[in-house]
Structures are given as C-alpha cells and as structure tokens.
Specification:
The chain contains 19 helices and nine strands. The chain is an alpha+beta fold and about 475 residues long. It has three domains: about 80 residues, Integrase, DNA-binding domain (Double Stranded RNA Binding Domain); about 90 residues, Orthogonal Bundle (DNA polymerase, domain 1), CATH 1.10.150.130; about 250 residues, Orthogonal Bundle (hpI Integrase, Chain A), CATH 1.10.443. Strand 3 and strand 4 form a beta hairpin. Helix 4 packs antiparallel against helix 5, helix 8 packs across helix 15 and helix 9 runs antiparallel to helix 11. It is elongated.
Amino acid sequence: MARLIKPLTALQVQNAKPRAAMYKLFDGGGLFLRVNPSGNKYWKMKYRKNDGKESLLTFGRFPEVSLKQARRMRDEARAQRAAGLDPGQVRKERKAALRNRAGNSFEAVSHEWLEIHSSKVKPQSLRIYRRILENCVFPFVGGRPAAELKTPDILALLRNFEAQGRIYLSRQISMLCGMVMRYAVAVGKAEADPTPSLRGSLKAHRVKHRAAMTEPKGVGRLLRAIDAYPGSFVISCALKIAPYVFVRPGELQCARWADIDFESGEWRYTVSKTGTPHIVPLAPQVLDILRRLHAVTGSKEWVFPHQCGKAGPMGRNSLLVALRAMGIRREEMTPHGFRAMARTLLDEELHERCELIEQQLAHKVRDPNGRAYNRTAHLAERRHMMEHWAQYLDKLRAESRPFEAERDGTPRASSLSAFKNRGPDGSPEKARQKINRESPVCCSENKKKEGFSTPQTKAQFWAEFFKGMTL
C-alpha cells in the first residue's frame, strides 16, 4: 500500500533549515523540496519514463518558485505523463524552440544581414544602418520572430516616427526593414516581406535641397566674405578653394597631398559616392592657394589636417561652422551649395556644355551610345572650363559691393554677442557651443597663430570683424 504523504504548507517550506546532509520534504505526486547544506532549496519532481526508468525534473529554486507554482508545474508534468509523453523531453523541445525563436528574431536576422553587407557597403553607411536599427527598430520589434512580423506591425512602427515629423527617417526605416525581411525570406526564416504592401500608406517626404547662392551679385559678396574670414589659415584656404573646385565637402575635407600634382595642375582622387576615379583640373588661382598651404601642412598626409591636433583631416563640420561664424545663415549657403552654385552659373551665365559640367561634378554621364565617360574624357575642355570659371569668380568678387549694414530689413550680426544670440538654428546656447567648441579658432595653437592671446582679445577681434558686415 502506497505511503500517504501529507502536503507541505508554505510555512513549512519557509522554515526548512539546512542540515549537515541534504534532505527532502515531500509534497505528494512526486514533488519534493530538496534542502542543501548550503541553505539553497530546490523544487524537484520524480517520475518514471516510458521505459520504466526513474528520472527527475527541476522546477526552480525557492523562493523564486513558490509552493503554488511548483504544484502547478507538477500537475502539468503529470498530465503530460498521462498522455504518454516524457515531461523531460517536452521541456527540452520547448527550450530548443525558444532558442530557435531567439535566433530567428528580427534583431538576430538584422545582425546577420549587417554582417553579410559589411563588405558590400561603405563603413559610414553601415554605421548609419546599424544605428537606425538599434535605436529605432529593435526596441519595438527586435525581439519578435521575423516570420511573425506583418504589414500592420511595420506600419505602426513607421507611424510612430511620422507623428514626430520624422518623415525621412520613417522612409529609411521602411527601406531597412524591407532589406532585412527579404534576407529573412531568402534564408528561410520568414515566408514573405511585408514592406511592399506599405506603398501608399506612408506620408510623402518632401526633398529639401541644400541652400546655395546662385545669384551672381550674391556670389561676389560671398567670395569677399570668405576672403575676410579671420579664422584658421587652413580653414580659410579650404573655404577659398571650395567655390573653384566645387567637389563634395567630404572629398575636399579629406584631400591628400599625394593626390595633387602641381606640375600637371590636377587633383586625382576616388569619388566617395560612386567609387570611380575622378580628375579635377586646378586653375592657377587654386594652385597658388595650395602652394601657400603646402608650406604649412605639406609635411602631413592631409591637405586640411584637423585643427586640434587630432589624427586625420579637419572636422566634417568645419566649413559649415566657419560659414555660420561669418553670419551666413543656413537658408543662404552650405558647403554643399558650392556645387549647385557652379552647376547653375556655369550653365546659365557661362553657357558651358551640360555634359562637361555634369562630368566635372562627378555625376554619372553617358555618351550618345549609352556608355559611361571615363575620367579622362574631355579633360582639355574641362580644364578650359575650370579656368573660365575661376576667372568668372574673380570678376564677381571684384565687382561685388561693399558689405552693407542690413539687407531686406534683416540686420546682420554686428558683434560677437549678437552672433552668440543667434546660432545656426536660432538657439543661443547652441551658438555659444559652436563658437567655443567647433570654431576653427578655438584651439590654443590657432589662437597664438592668429593673435588671440586671451578670450577677451578674441571677442574684441570678432566684434570688430562683424561690425557693419552683411552679404
């Protein structure tokens, strides 16, 4: 006759004290509490497999698993045993399913996709993809299996960012989710990509082009303002060269002396956007600036090295901060705007051939037979165009009017304090941070070089520079 076991009480379980040897407190139905000499208490269940061998199940440690929870797990295991199943095997299968679910989560699949694409895209683009996924996607759907994600799930995620006015970001998220889901389908971790059904359900993103000065008179005043820039000599040279060569800002900032040939008057480099070789014919005005700059930075790899002694080229925002420091607003001009300025004036004012302009902008241009031009195509004509462009800029600079006190009723900054009160986005604090942290004249080395011995003399210099200036 089976021995009757009196069920345990919560108080008995709580008050069970450790002994010199391990002992058990039985609750019935195979469930017991094992008390170790260390004081740890574990819920376990004894049962027999289909082959008659005895086995054990572990339900967890007390008090994390209460008496009530342990009894519920015992009853579930006994039901499985009554159905002819092995409770231990069922638990193994569940754990395997959970591991498989975790491996098939959207986050896990995204990391696989990023790893595969690391050799296909630029490191900068890969960092952007990873940052968007980690900050904007994983917190919402990262833990869910990719196979379970449906179109409404992605739409709800995108609507969240649309409500914040971040339309462009929502479009990027949709694009990335689509690429990850197509990879999941290819490797058998999802059945379909839900993103194509989003078409027509998202707000349209209105492209806002970067500001550019395209009026000849305005260009002349801009050139005069650049000539008067009192900051770092290196940044000043970069600003003066930018309108002559109209390359992408990142390509100018990362220019290397090894790529510049003074004898042939050419700058040869690889285009950052397309990865194709490109040649920039250098006008005499540009070569003159580069020769003067070579005496300062020629011993370094970069034409425009970082101004605070850090390794690498100058900061990516150095030109933008310099323009803002001169009082040029964001809606008037940006470093990238030199490209639009050249594209417009070369066509409308100098009447140069469009294919020459596009090729010099390093855009993909094809000949009448549909073949892409090589980097040396029309090099002589492009050299003549660049010299013509440089002469035209010099003419605009010479014919430009002096700085005015105001324009269109909008006063310009007349002192450093006025500039501090108006940052790039109108924020006083951000303006103060820009001038103190990112301005090319912030480094102690440059202060000595440019004559800034103390913050007071620096402020006086800027006040004098901004006095009565306008574009």
